[in-house]
Amino acid sequence: MMNDQTNRKKVVEITNLKKSFGNQVILKDVTLSLYEGENLVVLGKSGTGKSVLIKCLVGLLPTDSGTISVFDENMTAASGKELASIREKMGFLFQSGALYDSMTVRQNIEFPLRRIKKDLTEEQIEEKVKEVLENVGLADSIDKMPSELSGGMRKRISLARTLVIDPKIMLYDEPTTGLDPITSNEISMLILEIQKKYKTSSIIITHDIKCAQKTANRIIMLDEGLIYKEGSLEEFETSTDTTLQSFFN
After folding, report:
1. What is the second-level CATH architecture of the domain 7-89+169-249?
2. Are 163 and 192 in contact (CB under 8 A)?
Protein backbone atom coordinates (compact mmCIF):
# COMPACT_ATOMS: atom_id res chain seq x y z
CA MET A 1 0.00 0.00 0.00
CA MET A 2 1.01 3.64 -0.43
CA ASN A 3 3.10 4.33 2.66
CA ASP A 4 6.20 5.62 0.86
CA GLN A 5 5.53 9.33 0.37
CA THR A 6 8.75 10.06 -1.56
CA ASN A 7 8.13 12.29 -4.59
CA ARG A 8 4.40 12.36 -3.93
CA LYS A 9 2.53 15.63 -3.93
CA LYS A 10 0.96 17.00 -0.75
CA VAL A 11 -2.64 18.02 -1.38
CA VAL A 12 -3.32 19.08 2.22
CA GLU A 13 -0.82 20.43 4.70
CA ILE A 14 -1.89 21.32 8.25
CA THR A 15 0.76 22.99 10.43
CA ASN A 16 0.63 23.68 14.19
CA LEU A 17 -3.18 23.78 14.23
CA LYS A 18 -4.75 24.86 17.50
CA LYS A 19 -8.46 25.07 18.34
CA SER A 20 -10.25 25.71 21.64
CA PHE A 21 -13.82 26.31 22.73
CA GLY A 22 -13.61 28.64 25.71
CA ASN A 23 -11.26 27.00 28.21
CA GLN A 24 -11.56 23.61 26.55
CA VAL A 25 -8.57 22.93 24.31
CA ILE A 26 -9.58 20.50 21.53
CA LEU A 27 -6.56 20.60 19.19
CA LYS A 28 -3.31 21.50 20.94
CA ASP A 29 -0.77 21.42 18.13
CA VAL A 30 -1.61 19.25 15.11
CA THR A 31 0.65 18.97 12.06
CA LEU A 32 -0.19 16.51 9.27
CA SER A 33 -0.12 16.07 5.50
CA LEU A 34 -2.40 14.30 3.05
CA TYR A 35 -0.69 13.00 -0.09
CA GLU A 36 -2.14 12.67 -3.57
CA GLY A 37 -4.16 9.48 -4.06
CA GLU A 38 -3.95 8.18 -0.48
CA ASN A 39 -6.52 7.31 2.16
CA LEU A 40 -5.40 8.79 5.48
CA VAL A 41 -7.35 7.43 8.44
CA VAL A 42 -7.55 9.59 11.58
CA LEU A 43 -8.31 7.44 14.62
CA GLY A 44 -9.14 8.48 18.15
CA LYS A 45 -11.67 8.14 20.92
CA SER A 46 -14.71 10.44 21.07
CA GLY A 47 -13.76 13.97 22.08
CA THR A 48 -10.19 13.81 20.77
CA GLY A 49 -10.87 16.46 18.12
CA LYS A 50 -11.23 14.28 15.00
CA SER A 51 -14.38 15.98 13.65
CA VAL A 52 -13.17 19.43 14.73
CA LEU A 53 -10.04 18.82 12.64
CA ILE A 54 -11.94 18.35 9.38
CA LYS A 55 -14.41 21.13 10.17
CA CYS A 56 -11.42 23.47 10.46
CA LEU A 57 -10.05 22.00 7.22
CA VAL A 58 -13.16 22.92 5.21
CA GLY A 59 -13.56 26.28 6.96
CA LEU A 60 -16.73 25.38 8.89
CA LEU A 61 -14.85 26.31 12.08
CA PRO A 62 -12.27 29.11 12.39
CA THR A 63 -8.84 28.08 13.67
CA ASP A 64 -7.20 29.75 16.69
CA SER A 65 -3.72 29.50 15.15
CA GLY A 66 -1.73 27.46 12.68
CA THR A 67 -2.09 27.13 8.91
CA ILE A 68 -4.12 24.90 6.59
CA SER A 69 -2.99 24.65 2.99
CA VAL A 70 -5.06 22.87 0.31
CA PHE A 71 -3.54 22.49 -3.18
CA ASP A 72 -0.89 25.04 -2.07
CA GLU A 73 -3.54 27.63 -1.21
CA ASN A 74 -3.66 28.97 2.33
CA MET A 75 -7.21 28.29 3.62
CA THR A 76 -6.64 30.25 6.82
CA ALA A 77 -5.86 33.45 4.89
CA ALA A 78 -8.37 32.95 2.05
CA SER A 79 -11.17 35.41 1.32
CA GLY A 80 -14.78 34.17 1.21
CA LYS A 81 -14.64 33.80 -2.56
CA GLU A 82 -11.28 31.96 -2.50
CA LEU A 83 -12.53 29.68 0.26
CA ALA A 84 -15.63 28.79 -1.78
CA SER A 85 -13.44 27.98 -4.78
CA ILE A 86 -11.19 25.64 -2.74
CA ARG A 87 -14.23 23.99 -1.12
CA GLU A 88 -15.59 23.08 -4.56
CA LYS A 89 -12.65 20.69 -4.93
CA MET A 90 -13.56 18.94 -1.67
CA GLY A 91 -16.30 16.44 -0.91
CA PHE A 92 -17.57 16.11 2.66
CA LEU A 93 -19.55 13.08 3.78
CA PHE A 94 -21.20 14.09 7.06
CA GLN A 95 -21.80 11.55 9.80
CA SER A 96 -25.56 12.11 9.54
CA GLY A 97 -25.67 11.92 5.73
CA ALA A 98 -27.52 15.27 5.71
CA LEU A 99 -29.93 14.59 2.83
CA TYR A 100 -32.82 16.97 2.15
CA ASP A 101 -35.88 14.99 3.25
CA SER A 102 -38.29 17.00 1.09
CA MET A 103 -36.36 16.21 -2.12
CA THR A 104 -36.17 13.00 -4.13
CA VAL A 105 -32.82 11.25 -4.53
CA ARG A 106 -32.52 12.80 -8.01
CA GLN A 107 -33.17 16.32 -6.67
CA ASN A 108 -30.73 15.81 -3.78
CA ILE A 109 -27.94 14.92 -6.19
CA GLU A 110 -28.83 17.61 -8.73
CA PHE A 111 -28.75 20.33 -6.05
CA PRO A 112 -24.94 20.79 -5.71
CA LEU A 113 -24.45 20.15 -9.43
CA ARG A 114 -26.76 23.02 -10.42
CA ARG A 115 -25.18 25.31 -7.83
CA ILE A 116 -21.53 24.63 -8.72
CA LYS A 117 -21.45 23.49 -12.37
CA LYS A 118 -23.76 26.07 -13.88
CA ASP A 119 -22.74 25.45 -17.50
CA LEU A 120 -24.15 21.90 -17.73
CA THR A 121 -27.14 21.09 -19.94
CA GLU A 122 -30.16 19.17 -18.58
CA GLU A 123 -28.93 16.08 -20.46
CA GLN A 124 -25.47 16.36 -18.88
CA ILE A 125 -27.02 16.77 -15.43
CA GLU A 126 -29.19 13.68 -15.96
CA GLU A 127 -26.19 11.69 -17.20
CA LYS A 128 -24.03 12.75 -14.23
CA VAL A 129 -26.75 11.91 -11.68
CA LYS A 130 -27.22 8.44 -13.18
CA GLU A 131 -23.45 7.85 -13.31
CA VAL A 132 -22.84 8.56 -9.61
CA LEU A 133 -25.89 6.53 -8.57
CA GLU A 134 -24.57 3.56 -10.57
CA ASN A 135 -21.18 4.01 -8.91
CA VAL A 136 -22.75 3.64 -5.45
CA GLY A 137 -25.00 0.79 -6.58
CA LEU A 138 -28.33 2.62 -6.29
CA ALA A 139 -29.38 3.51 -9.86
CA ASP A 140 -32.92 2.20 -9.19
CA SER A 141 -33.45 4.62 -6.26
CA ILE A 142 -33.34 7.79 -8.38
CA ASP A 143 -36.98 8.79 -7.79
CA LYS A 144 -37.33 7.62 -4.18
CA MET A 145 -37.57 9.89 -1.15
CA PRO A 146 -34.87 9.65 1.54
CA SER A 147 -37.50 8.35 4.01
CA GLU A 148 -37.92 5.24 1.83
CA LEU A 149 -34.24 4.32 2.17
CA SER A 150 -32.33 2.36 4.82
CA GLY A 151 -29.46 3.99 6.77
CA GLY A 152 -26.87 2.38 4.51
CA MET A 153 -28.70 3.49 1.37
CA ARG A 154 -28.95 7.07 2.67
CA LYS A 155 -25.21 7.02 3.28
CA ARG A 156 -24.60 5.85 -0.30
CA ILE A 157 -26.89 8.57 -1.71
CA SER A 158 -25.02 11.19 0.38
CA LEU A 159 -21.81 9.86 -1.10
CA ALA A 160 -23.25 10.07 -4.63
CA ARG A 161 -24.28 13.68 -3.97
CA THR A 162 -20.72 14.46 -2.86
CA LEU A 163 -19.13 12.73 -5.86
CA VAL A 164 -21.32 14.47 -8.43
CA ILE A 165 -19.09 17.59 -8.38
CA ASP A 166 -15.92 15.49 -9.00
CA PRO A 167 -14.05 16.37 -5.80
CA LYS A 168 -10.28 15.92 -5.68
CA ILE A 169 -10.32 15.47 -1.90
CA MET A 170 -12.86 13.43 0.07
CA LEU A 171 -13.45 13.95 3.79
CA TYR A 172 -15.37 11.17 5.54
CA ASP A 173 -16.67 11.90 9.04
CA GLU A 174 -17.39 8.56 10.77
CA PRO A 175 -18.70 6.97 7.53
CA THR A 176 -19.78 3.68 9.16
CA THR A 177 -21.27 4.95 12.44
CA GLY A 178 -24.75 3.59 13.18
CA LEU A 179 -24.57 0.96 10.43
CA ASP A 180 -24.72 -2.82 10.88
CA PRO A 181 -21.46 -4.78 10.23
CA ILE A 182 -22.43 -5.90 6.71
CA THR A 183 -23.43 -2.39 5.60
CA SER A 184 -20.33 -0.92 7.30
CA ASN A 185 -18.18 -3.29 5.28
CA GLU A 186 -19.99 -2.26 2.06
CA ILE A 187 -19.33 1.43 2.80
CA SER A 188 -15.64 0.70 3.49
CA MET A 189 -15.34 -1.16 0.19
CA LEU A 190 -17.10 1.72 -1.56
CA ILE A 191 -14.52 4.16 -0.15
CA LEU A 192 -11.80 2.03 -1.79
CA GLU A 193 -13.69 1.89 -5.10
CA ILE A 194 -14.09 5.69 -5.08
CA GLN A 195 -10.38 6.17 -4.34
CA LYS A 196 -9.60 4.06 -7.41
CA LYS A 197 -12.32 5.30 -9.79
CA TYR A 198 -12.25 9.01 -8.94
CA LYS A 199 -8.53 9.14 -7.95
CA THR A 200 -9.43 10.93 -4.74
CA SER A 201 -7.18 11.78 -1.82
CA SER A 202 -9.15 11.15 1.38
CA ILE A 203 -9.16 11.80 5.10
CA ILE A 204 -11.31 9.24 6.91
CA ILE A 205 -12.29 10.13 10.48
CA THR A 206 -13.32 6.99 12.33
CA HIS A 207 -13.17 4.95 15.49
CA ASP A 208 -14.29 1.84 13.57
CA ILE A 209 -11.18 -0.35 13.44
CA LYS A 210 -12.59 -2.60 10.71
CA CYS A 211 -13.16 0.46 8.49
CA ALA A 212 -9.60 1.63 9.20
CA GLN A 213 -8.18 -1.82 8.41
CA LYS A 214 -9.98 -1.93 5.05
CA THR A 215 -9.41 1.63 3.84
CA ALA A 216 -6.15 3.00 5.30
CA ASN A 217 -2.96 3.62 3.37
CA ARG A 218 -1.69 5.47 6.44
CA ILE A 219 -3.04 6.07 9.95
CA ILE A 220 -2.76 8.93 12.42
CA MET A 221 -4.02 8.58 15.97
CA LEU A 222 -5.17 11.67 17.86
CA ASP A 223 -5.08 11.66 21.63
CA GLU A 224 -5.85 14.64 23.85
CA GLY A 225 -5.54 17.09 20.96
CA LEU A 226 -2.15 15.87 19.76
CA ILE A 227 -0.92 13.33 17.22
CA TYR A 228 -0.07 10.30 19.35
CA LYS A 229 1.23 8.10 16.52
CA GLU A 230 1.50 8.09 12.73
CA GLY A 231 2.29 5.03 10.61
CA SER A 232 1.10 2.13 8.48
CA LEU A 233 -1.71 -0.24 9.46
CA GLU A 234 0.89 -2.95 10.10
CA GLU A 235 2.83 -0.67 12.47
CA PHE A 236 -0.34 0.03 14.44
CA GLU A 237 -1.44 -3.62 14.54
CA THR A 238 1.95 -4.95 15.68
CA SER A 239 2.72 -2.19 18.19
CA THR A 240 3.22 -3.16 21.84
CA ASP A 241 1.96 0.29 22.95
CA THR A 242 -0.98 -0.30 25.31
CA THR A 243 -2.95 2.72 24.01
CA LEU A 244 -2.79 1.35 20.46
CA GLN A 245 -3.48 -2.20 21.57
CA SER A 246 -6.68 -1.06 23.29
CA PHE A 247 -7.91 -0.01 19.82
CA PHE A 248 -6.70 -2.95 17.77
CA ASN A 249 -7.39 -5.86 20.13
Report:
1. 3-Layer(aba) Sandwich (3.40)
2. no
Q: Where are the alpha helices (DSSP H) in the chain?
A: 50-57, 80-87, 105-116, 122-135, 151-163, 181-198, 209-215, 233-238, 242-248
pTM: 0.90
Q: How many CB atoms lie within 10 A of CB 228?
A: 15
Pairing of β 169-173 and β 201-206: parallel
Q: Per-domain residue ranges for the chain?
A: 7-89+169-249, 100-166
Q: What is the mean pLDDT of residues 65-76?
A: 92
Backbone angles phi, psi at 161, to 5 degrees: -65, -35
Contact (Cβ atoms closer than 8 angstroms) between residue 206 and residue 41:
yes
Looking at residue 6, its pLDDT comes to 54
Q: Is the dihedral of CA 54, 58, 63, 69 positive or negative?
A: positive
